[in-house]
Specification:
The complex is a heterodimer. Chain A contains 9 helices and no strands. Chain A is an all-alpha fold. Chain A has one domain: Orthogonal Bundle (Arc Repressor Mutant, subunit A), CATH 1.10.10.10. In chain A, helix 2 packs across helix 4 and helix 4 crosses helix 8. Chain B has one domain. About 14% of the residues of chain B have low confidence. The chains are: A mainly alpha, B alpha+beta. At the A-B interface, helix 2, helix 3, helix 6 and helix 9 of A face helix 1, helix 2 and helix 11 of B. Chain B: Keywords: Membrane, Transmembrane, Transmembrane helix. Chain B: It comes from Nonomuraea muscovyensis.
């Protein structure tokens, strides 16, 4: 976002009177939200989830808290809720990766010749760890890592307390480290991941 | 590389998506869908002095002349899910029918409760209303008498200052007034008796009617469900069309049965329902014995989407009486 463009909250406020202005929120954030949805569910259902995310956001814009200048956490929250309806799709693809070593999610974007076997083993373990996590824990973990949300933003996005975010992240990371095998002592220091 | 870095690396080859045309089109279609806020529209009609005109006026960028898509194939549904609607269809012909003639009015007496919003405040707006609908023609010739009832807090919220005005109107019934200054609903959204008497009497035909010009944006079944409500609330269909409506409604994917529901007047019945994209289960309630339509109710099933606790009621209505009158009240 450049210095001169209005904050998301100002755009949303205006869209309450002029609905078509909401298109600007889509233009600003749809690409990032779509990449996130694809990483979780794959290309096939991403279009549905992204379209529904922004439609739901449009319908809820009257309730958006205008004190929040950046709409991304809100959009990530809606998208995560909608992703929850496709838990089976998500689990099936992760399980497929665990069993076969081929990730149906990244396949469309990966050149056939690019076989990175060492990385593949790590991916299989990560997939096994992710699929074994409770859905709520996976949601929080991926919002903070892939989505780049702070703990506070993730809490806001999912309507849960920051303490809940922290404990879910801790437990999820413990399971992932167990799955990955090695215990890296430095990884026990929990830091908030903050981007942008 | 620590676990977070490895996780960040996982599926990082998925590129940022530049081609978002399909999603953009669906958003635009959804934003401009003619009757998307169907329940909200009923609410606006109840809440605003300007009546239907104000609600219809919002749809300034109405998308017209979209190619009519074929409705999705009906799903095979469990007996329980369609039971209410099927029974309602079977009972549609068993009661004395109203036979309004051209020039007469159908008179609906009802109570409504809908969410009202303004300046970031939200509350539940309630009214008792009498609606005189001409047997033939648009809502411009319809009349409405609205009596504001005490507003209630939106579940989980305080009663905000904006609701004060409604509080002051309690006990001061308004005079009947013209229900709308203009009515530019498309033909297929009409619900006057002359029009609904010509609707199909077979399930498939009625189903096509419910999906007329519905954009296929993932919300199409909910849209069709909203249209069922438009033909139940302040609308009266001949028995044959009513039966077809119930049968067609039973084919809409996502319809569920609610064993006990209460309308705005406290009458209990059995309901058919669908969960809205706003996390609210929108129920149509029928009398347990006669399967007469009693009213509707909106119950929160997703606290976050609905911004209210699960199980709370965020909208309801009760259709108390439907009758035929020769004339409408005089309006100066």
């Amino acid at each position: 976002m450049s210095e001169t463009s209005p904050a998301d909250s100002a755009v949303i406020a205006r869209s309450r009177q002029e609905p078509e202005v909401f298109g600007e929120i889509f233009r600003r954030h749809a690409a990032e939200i779509k990449r996130f949805v694809i990483r979780r569910l794959g290309l096939d259902v991403a279009e549905d989830v992204v379209a529904e995310t922004f439609l739901a956001a449009f319908h809820q814009r009257g309730r958006y808290d205008l004190a929040r200048h950046n709409a991304l956490p809100w959009l990530y929250g809606i998208a995560t809720n909608l992703i929850g309806r496709h838990k089976r799709t998500e689990a099936r693809q992760l399980n497929l990766l665990v069993r076969t070593g081929v990730d149906p999610v990244t396949e469309p974007f990966t050149p056939r010749s690019d076989e990175r076997l060492s990385a593949q083993a790590v991916q299989q373990r990560l997939a096994a760890a992710l699929v074994a996590l409770p859905a709520g824990h996976r949601d929080v973990l991926l919002l903070v890592t892939w989505g780049g949300l702070s703990y506070a933003e993730a809490a806001e996005a999912l309507g849960i307390r920051v303490g809940t975010v922290r404990s879910r992240i801790n437990r999820a990371r413990t399971k992932i480290r167990e799955e990955l095998g090695g215990t890296d002592p430095t990884a026990l220091v929990i830091e908030e991941v903050r981007h942008g | 590389m620590d676990d977070l870095a490895q996780l960040n690396n996982f599926r990082s080859e998925v590129p940022v998506q530049e081609d978002l045309r399909a999603e953009a089109e669906r958003l635009m279609a959804g934003m401009s869908a003619p009757a998307r806020p169907n329940f909200r529209r009923l609410g606006l009609r109840a809440a605003l002095a300007g009546g239907l005109a104000a609600a219809v006026g919002v749809a300034v960028f109405l998308v017209q002349n979209q190619p009519a898509p074929t409705p999705p194939p009906p799903l095979i549904r469990t007996v329980a899910a369609v039971e209410v609607l099927t029974r309602a269809a079977e009972h549609a012909g068993s009661r004395p029918e109203l036979h309004p003639r051209p020039g007469q009015f159908l008179v609906y007496q009802s109570e409504t409760m809908n969410s009202a919003e303004g300046e970031g405040q939200i509350w539940l707006s309630r009214a008792r209303r009498t609606f005189w609908q001409p047997v033939e023609g648009s809502s411009v010739k319809a009349f409405l008498q609205n009596e504001i009832l005490a507003p209630l807090p939106y579940p989980g919220h305080m009663l905000p200052p904006l609701a004060q005005w409604e509080q002051e109107q309690v006990g001061k019934p308004s005079r009947p007034e013209r229900a709308a200054d203009f009515d530019d609903r498309p033909e297929f959204m009409r619900n006057d008796y002359a029009y609904v008497s010509k609707l199909p009497t077979d399930t498939e035909g009625m189903r096509r009617h419910l999906y007329t010009q519905v954009p296929f944006d993932g919300l199409q079944d909910y849209e069709a469900w909203g249209r069922v409500g438009g033909l139940l609330q302040e609308s009266y269909l001949p028995a044959a069309q009513r039966a077809a409506l119930f049968r067609a409604a039973a084919t809409i994917p996502g319809v569920v049965t609610v064993k006990e529901a209460q309308d705005a007047a406290g009458r209990t019945g059995i309901a058919a329902a669908m969960v809205s994209p706003m996390g609210v289960r929108e129920e149509y309630i029928f009398d347990r014995k006669t399967y007469d339509y009693l009213g509707r109710r909106g119950v929160v099933v997703d606290a976050k989407l609905a911004n209210a606790p699960v199980g709370s009621v965020v909208s309801s209505s009760a259709q108390l009486k439907v009758s035929v009158a020769d004339g409408a009240p005089i309006v100066e």
